[in-house]
Design brief:
The protein is built from 21 helices and 16 strands. It has about 525 residues and is α/β, with parallel strands linked by helices. Helix 13 links the parallel strand 11 and strand 12. Helix 12 packs across helix 13. About 50% of the residues are buried. Strands 4, 5, 6, 7, 8, 9 and 10 form a 7-stranded mixed sheet that branches. A 6-stranded parallel sheet has the order 13-12-11-14-15-16.
Length: about 525
């Protein structure tokens, strides 16, 4: 332990209310003493760090002497500095640890849980996806070159439930950067199709996590229910959640999951009773991740349209995300047309329901001349036939993989229609996960609207940066995604980007009245990028 090049190296993870004696003049000695207090507090936060609560313990324990001086009171704390933040964050661990003890499901407050793979009868074995298959994914072009062929899949057959459970990952997942993605339950035509979707969705999650620096890696839990009488309704969900919990225990903190297609908050609550690897706003039940996603989509639409007044949009899919998007667009003054397979869901006050079975039914809704098509429904909505007859100026939504194929996407973007990838527009839920995981205290105390508006703010900023970067590089917007990534496209000397976005929420919430315009911020960030 010592001062090396102006930095102090150590291995602790908590400091609890201690300061060095003021009569010690030698700053290096005082820093050593302060650091020892930090190290002595390690036991208080050990469970948090071992459970992946801190993304990198090593990073958290590197700090300049100025950071120590700030914490000693010699200088004002600079909470925009990631080192200062890490130390201040650690000082709260005793309070948060008490919070975990009070919480019925201590999501972050547990150590390694022993589990013998032999009990399940199957060892954990990841299988690397063939590079050609990984690159064939529609998301692959949005990833850095090194990640385009790093996808892998973990599969487990559960014949007693009639399902195959798998975890897709864009690359290796670790406790320092655990995988994060929802739990999708679906009936697939064959095992290969299910595996391809697991990979594609995981790569899509990687784009989201990297774009916003959530602290997670891209992954997805996919359950193929084709053996359950060809229906997700026939699956015994209680037993499925127990089997999933067993698998997550074996993965030992390298994978977290939450709600997705055909899995609900009730399912996640059941799963959270069996294992701690669930991120579904369980710690703050008033927060709805779907609303966070919707507000993120609204931010992206606002960036593309610049002004809502007098604009038009078609919202396809009016469920928990699309319904909120449609309602908020109406409130903002947009003329909204709504479409849903269940017509009643598209009955949004102030919107025109053009679903099948209504008096305003429009069969070929995609031909409508509108400013934005907002897909919030199924993947593959836009086929080649649809693409050749699109009447919209932009496509911005929540749907993962809205195009039927990469050729369809290229046709659409080549025609001049602006497409904001879902990795940018549909990131609200992963931003919420980052807050819940990296700043549980702030998450538990937050008002839902503050979290939703935070998602809207950062997605608006990021979309603005995306569009301007695309213009500066003379490329379509989707191809600019990798250049605006906080993890892959950021300048190496930008230390502030090391802080996961979830850690920044509390500061944003405290200063909402003075926050810089997100559009201006996105413009500034795009201009600061190296476009050589």
């Amino acid at each position: 332990m010592g001062v090396l090049n102006g930095q102090i190296r150590g291995t602790g993870s908590s400091m609890v209310g201690w300061s060095a004696p003021s009569n010690v003049d030698d700053h290096e000695v005082r820093s050593e003493m302060l650091h020892q207090a930090w190290k002595n507090g390690c036991a208080a936060a050990g469970s948090l760090t071992r459970a992946g609560r801190v993304r990198s313990v090593t990073d958290a324990c590197y700090a300049s002497t100025n950071c120590f001086r700030r914490l000693e009171g010699e200088m004002n704390a600079d909470l925009s500095c990631p080192h200062c933040y890490d130390f201040q964050r650690a000082m709260q661990t005793m309070e948060e640890k008490n919070g975990y003890n009070k919480f019925s499901n201590p999501i972050r407050g547990v150590d390694k849980i022993s589990w013998s793979p032999s009990q399940q009868g199957q060892e954990i074995a990841w299988r690397s996806v063939e590079p050609s298959d990984a690159r064939a994914s529609m998301i692959a072009p949005l990833l850095p070159e090194g990640l385009r062929h790093s996808a892998r899949v973990l599969k487990r057959s559960l014949p007693h439930l009639g399902v195959n459970l798998m975890v897709g990952a864009a690359a290796e997942i670790t406790r320092d950067r655990p995988g994060n993605g929802g739990f999708r339950l679906w009936v697939y035509s064959d095992a290969e199709t299910a595996e391809r979707e697991a990979v594609g969705l995981a790569q899509g999650m990687e784009v989201k996590h990297a774009t916003y620096n959530t602290g997670f890696a891209g992954a997805k839990v996919v359950c193929d229910a084709s053996g359950a009488n060809e229906s997700v309704l026939k699956v015994n969900k209680n037993e499925l959640m127990k089997a999933t919990a067993a698998l997550l225990h074996e993965l030992n903190g390298t994978m977290y999951t939450g709600c997705d297609l055909n899995t609900t908050t009730n399912d996640m609550e059941a799963l959270s009773r069996e294992c701690p690897y669930v991120l579904a706003a369980v710690a703050n039940e008033s927060v709805n991740p779907n609303n966070a996603t919707a507000y993120g989509v609204l931010g992206a639409i606002e960036s593309v349209l610049e002004d809502f007044k007098g604009k038009t949009a078609v919202v396809h899919g009016c469920g928990s995300v699309g319904g909120t998007v449609a309602r908020e667009l109406v409130r903002a003054g947009v003329r909204v047309y709504t479409v849903d397979a269940i017509a009643a869901k598209a009955d949004i006050p102030g919107a025109t329901n053009i679903s099948k079975g209504t008096s305003n039914y429009v069969e070929e809704f995609w031909k409508l001349k509108v400013d934005a098509l907002v897909p919030c429904s199924i993947s593959g909505l836009i086929s080649m036939e649809v693409a050749q007859n699109l009447g919209c100026k932009a496509i911005v939504g929540a749907t993962n993989l809205p195009f039927r194929s990469i050729e369809v996407q290229e046709l659409v973007e080549g025609s001049g229609i602006v497409f904001v990838p879902e990795g940018v527009s549909s990131a609200g839920a992963v931003i919420v996960d980052s807050i819940e995981h990296f700043d549980l205290k702030a998450f538990k105390e937050a008002q839902p609207i503050d979290i939703y508006e935070f998602c809207r703010h950062v997605v608006l900023e990021k979309t603005t940066e995306l569009l301007l970067t695309a213009g500066l590089r003379d490329i379509v917007a989707s191809r600019a995604t990798k250049f605006i990534s906080e993890e892959y496209g950021a300048p190496e000397n930008h230390d502030g980007l090391k802080m996961p976005i979830g850690r920044t929420f509390r500061f944003w919430a405290q200063g909402r009245g003075s926050v810089i315009s997100p559009g201006a911020a996105g413009t500034r960030r795009a201009l600061n990028r190296d476009i050589s």
